[in-house]
Amino acid sequence: MSTRRLIIGFAWMAPILALLLWPVSAWLSIGVLFISHMLLLYPTLRATSQWFGPVVTEFEPQGQQAWLTIDDGPTDDTDQILAILSRAGARATFFLIGQRARQRPDLVRRIVEQGHSVGNHSDTHPSASFWCLPRNRIREQIDRCSETLQEITGKKPELFRTPVGMKNFFVHPLLNERHMPLVAWSARGFDGLVTNPEKVAARILPSVSPGTIIMMHQGRFRSDHTHASVEAIERVVVQLKGRGYDLVIPAPNQFRAGRR
User: Fold this and answer.
1) 103 and 194 in one domain?
2) 41 and 163 share a domain?
3) Domain holding 211: CATH number?
4) Taking residues 223-246, what's their average pLDDT?
5) Cβ neighbours of residue 222 under 8 Å, at least 6 residues apart?
6) Which of 51, 109, 240, 244 has the largest count of CB atoms under 10 Å?
7) Angle formed at CA 248 by CA 162 and CA 61, multiple of 5 degrees
8) Is residue 1 over pLDDT 90?
């Protein structure tokens, strides 16, 4: 039996077990409920947790390679990011939001035309609620984004990344039906919150080794309207290239789950 089924089964049985234990020990009864809730929350909130199903966290490299993934586009700085990647001879996967792709299909096409790949990052990026959405709402988030990207590029996206890495027990069955791997990361700079490119790079670079999946964001600006995402991505790309890394898009048969 899978870990996912055991967790869900225990969650269903926990209230009954708690009622049975209440006459014996109130603390034991509360403890059962607490454990059942924690078993559901941990894989929901931790992006790399494999408890609900496999999550890609690294890949089998062919030499000194890393995989740069960029979330939340397309945005006004997409062209600048593409220019950075072009100068460095780097390839990346852009996990795009369906709603934004419909507004800027020209940027989506440019991403693909320049040799990069696009992945599904949900239709509206409901970061505060995705983890608790019912099955039908999650299905809509996945399918509408996929339909949008297919209409623009002529190809259905093959990969999915959840908003802010959160998931629930509906996500994996829906992705399995669509044969879409769930992709997380093994290095991140919290650039969705931090606008200092030096601090972002300082968090990412020590974590990079061959086979690392790097997660960054686009569309982040400082209070003075300067391009925080562009500078952070450029710093990471340039420093990795200087260390001899190739930034590549791995094939699905190179994916690994649960190693980090």
Assistant:
1) yes
2) no
3) 3.20.20.370
4) 93
5) 195, 228
6) 240
7) 95
8) no
CA 242/CA 210 separation, integer angstroms:
14
| Residue 50 lies inside a defined structural domain of this protein | no
Half-sphere exposure of 25 (CA within 13 A, CB side): 6
Residue 176 token pair: 């399995």
Amino acid in position 235 = R
Task: Taking residues 16-31, report their average pLDDT.
Answer: 83
Q: Report yes or no on 51 lying in a domain.
A: no
Of 59, 172, 174, 154, give the one whose Cα is nearest residue 113: 154
User: Is the CA virtual torsion 58, 62, 66, 70 positive or negative?
Assistant: negative
What is the arithmetic mean of pLDDT over 85-97? 98
Condensed to tens digits (0 to 9), the pLDDT of residues 106-121 reads 999 999 999 999 999 9
Q: What is the pLDDT of residues 134-187, one digit of tens each?
A: 999 999 999 999 999 999 999 999 999 999 999 999 999 999 999 999 999 999
Domain that holds residue 175: 56-257
